[in-house]
Amino acid sequence: MAILTILEYPDPRLSRAAKPVTAFDDGLRTLVRDMSETMYAAAGVGLAAVQVDVLERVVVMDLSEAKNELRVFVNPSIVWASQELQSCEEGCLSVPGIFELVRRPAQVRLRAQDLQGAAFELECTGTLAVCVQHEIDHLDGTVFVQHLSLLKQARVRAKLRKRRARP
User: Fold this and answer.
1) CA–CA separation, 161 vs 132, rounded Å?
2) What is the CATH number of the domain that holds 133?
3) What is the total count of domains within the chain?
């Protein structure tokens, strides 16, 4: 297992779209192990492969308090979203220390595959719905701050530049 480097916004590699996984093999299982170890080490709740510079449609997530309920979504897509919206404060391992309110559909239906390639669907509400949408955005080349106003995006970039400039 290995801790991978998490790309930080506004790294242009975060803007690339991931490609579907076609090989459900040891390479995929190793990627998922490394991604989950990286997510847990960074105290995150979700991580998309794009965030570790791998252009494959893979997401790992664990919303449990005990951090013992790892979920793996391969080739995830949202097949339905409610018209009802909710605002939720979001943060991101690729945008460290920044938390902002984002409006998203309150409920979504996810279609994905597991590590063996078996397809499944999942109804998502609450925090799970937010996280699923956030991570799928990453797979499509979108970081959550891009849902903010241009002024807030500029403020986020300025805060991150200032933090990186500190010795």
Assistant:
1) 28
2) 3.90.45.10
3) 1
- Residue 3 included in any domain: no
**The pLDDT of residue 14:** 98
Q: Which residues contact 73 (CB under 8 A, 6 or more apart)?
A: 58, 59, 60, 61, 110, 112, 113, 132, 135
Q: What residues make up the domain containing 136?
A: 12-165
Q: Does residue 57 sit within a domain?
A: yes
CB 123 within 8 A of CB 82: no
What residue has token string 């605002």? 87
Catalytic residues: 135
Amino acid at 121: E
Residue 163 banded pLDDT, cuts 50, 70, 90: confident
Is 5 inside any structural domain?
A: no
Q: Look at residue 4 and tell me if it is in a domain.
A: no
Whether residue 10 has a cis bond before it, omega within 30° of 0: yes
- Has this prediction a pTM greater than 0.90? yes
Q: How far apart are CA 137 and CA 119, in angstroms?
A: 20
